Each structure stands twice: as C-alpha cells, then as structure tokens.
Predict the structure.
Amino acid sequence: MKINRRALLQYAVHASWFATPCLWAQPAGRPIRIIVPASPGSSLDLMARYLSGPLRDGLGTDVVVENKVGANGVIGADFVAKSTPDGTTLLLTSVHHYLSKVVAEGALPYDPERDFTPVARLANGTNMVVVPASSPYKTLEDMVQDMKSRPGQVTFGSSGSGSTTHLCSALLNQMTHTEAKNIPYRGTAGATTDAVGGQVDFTCQSTSTALPLVKAGRLRALGQTGKRRLEGIPDVPTVAEAGVAGYEAVFFLALLAPVGTPAPIINRLSDSLVKIAGTSAFKEFCAMQQLAPDFADAQAFNAQIPGNVARWLQIAKASKQ
C-alpha cells in the first residue's frame, strides 16, 4: 500500500498537538521561526520582532525572527513554502507576495496562493515619498514637474521590482503620466541608504522605515500614500492632497504558513494573534510605527485576500506594460 508522506506527517502533528499538555506542540524542541523577506528595520521586520515576545509568552515556546532578503521576497517565501508544515516556520509578508506571479521575471519555485495557508492579517500600512534632505524638490509638485520635463531621467530606488516600494512609484508614474526610472535594490536598506546619499532622486518606503530618517533631517517627506493624514505626522500631506488627485496605496501585513499545516495549529496561532491584537500594547506599537491595526483571523483573511489584492494587481500589470 502506498503511504502519502504528507498525510502521515499531518497525522503525526495532529497527534502530538492533542497528546501534549504544553501550550504548543513544539516538534523536537524547535522554536517557531518567523521568516521576514525584507530588510531589518522594515515594517515587516519590526512587526515580526514585536510579535515574537507576546507569541512566546502566549504559546510557551521560543520564537525567533530570521531575515531572508532578496528577489523581492521570493527567497524568503520559497524557504517557507518548502518547510515542514508543522507550525514552526511562518512567513510575515505583505501584498507583494500575491503579486509575485505577475511581476516575476521567470517562473516562481512555488505558487503564492496554493503553497501557503493564511494565519492572520495584522495591520495596514502606508508608504512615504521621500527625497534627500539636500534635494531641490520642496514639494511633490516640484518633483512631478521635473519628472515631466525630463522623461526617464528622474530615478527612484525600490526594494525590488514588484515590491510595494516599486509599485507606489509606478502608480505615481501612471497617474501623472511621467516616466521616472526604477532602480531596484536587494532590499529596503539599500534603497533608503542611497536616497539619503542622493544616489537616487526619491524613494517610496514604508512610513515606519522612512519616518525616523525624516525626523533626523536626513530625508524630506513630500507625501504619504494613505487616504488621510496620519495622526503621528499631521504635517505630511497625502499624495492626493499634494496634487495627485485620487492617489491611494495601502498595504497589509500578514502571517502565512506552509500549505498542509494542520488546522488545529493554524487556529491556535490565529487565536493567539487575536489576543495580541486586542491588547493596548499592540495598538501602541502600531501607533508608533504609523500602522493601522486591522486584524482578520485565518478564515476571514482568506476570504478577503482577493479584495485586498485586486487594486495592487492592476498597478502591477500596468507597470509591466
């Protein structure tokens, strides 16, 4: 008789889950690893590092964060997709994960939908259009006018083609009928560093990443990609207010597991995150990072993914034309 290896593994994990008196069925004493496909200091990285503490306390097991950067998140996502589906390897990612099939230059080594199971959506975030402190652009309109007068010569740094940092700038190109040139980097750190140094004319980075550099006087904020101004930075206009009517680009932060992870483990993780998201500490963390708490458990998030991703897919497809 042929034995299905994955089914046997799932049975074993189910059995250990219900047999153990511990809070978390930790296979062979292994910690939970949250894989972040983005640079240290990015909004994904900061969220993962925050969650590691309360998850550890709630589940009674060690939680570690690992950054696996490169190929616009493909390296980190591929690592998780090929991991044992026992709840010990998770992916903290964003909307770019679901766009990778559209923007990837070649075939992906995994399917971003079929090879992952949603655990929870945690929050929404915005990006900030920033320029070097020494830039001649004082307003977004200054920059757009220069983009129009010099097609293809104004440059922007992104954390990779197809990332939200790329697509926010691509949307700006689309809506202003301009042709700023994408300079893709391996991650957020390189794009941000070169924006500070003036090697690129602007970058569109997560507000949590860019804000400390804006406050330190190393970058100048021209606009923020949300629908309304953020309470923590009321002097920074939205891109729409700054002159690009109708512009809005908001991304989500979500936790995924490899497909085949048993439902009791997904539910246990999701329930733990429900409790964390309801705490004042989580809300304070989000406020500090200029994120909007927007929790959806595994079932709700799974149903909402198509709607969450639809507009970004349109932007991604247009950026390829």
In short: Strands lie at 32-36, 63-67, 89-94, 116-132, 155-158, 181-184, 202-206, 219-224, 250-258, 292-297. The chain has two domains: 5-125+252-319, 126-224. The first helix runs from residue 5 to 19. Confidence is low (pLDDT under 50) at residues 1-22.
